[in-house]
Design goal:
two-stranded antiparallel sheet, 11% strand
Length: 92
């Protein structure tokens, strides 16, 4: 395989990986209130951390996990808007 063909093949592979990742992300949604301690996916609503794996308690309303689109309610979770509302009511 010549150098140009090898570079093109590598570039095509990289693009296809990006397309698959984007497609997988599009089929997921954030589901609040279902993450177990240490198993959240990223930052919480309170802004007390910005990393995955930082949840202190199970099922904390401000922590989220990415789940298959359309399954959040079945899992007992909340959308971001619902979680924000509940979190603010809890703080008041």
């Amino acid at each position: 395989m010549n150098k140009k063909a090898l570079i093109c093949a590598g570039f095509a592979a990289a693009l296809s990986i990006g397309a698959v990742s984007s497609a997988q992300a599009a089929s997921k949604e954030k589901c609040y209130g279902i993450a177990k301690a240490g198993q959240n996916d990223c930052a919480n609503l309170a802004g007390t951390h910005s990393c995955a794996g930082q949840a202190k308690n199970d099922d904390a309303i401000g922590e989220w996990k990415a789940v298959k689109k359309g399954t959040c309610k079945e899992l007992g979770g909340y959308s971001k808007a619902e979680a924000k509302k509940l979190w603010k009511e809890k703080k008041a």
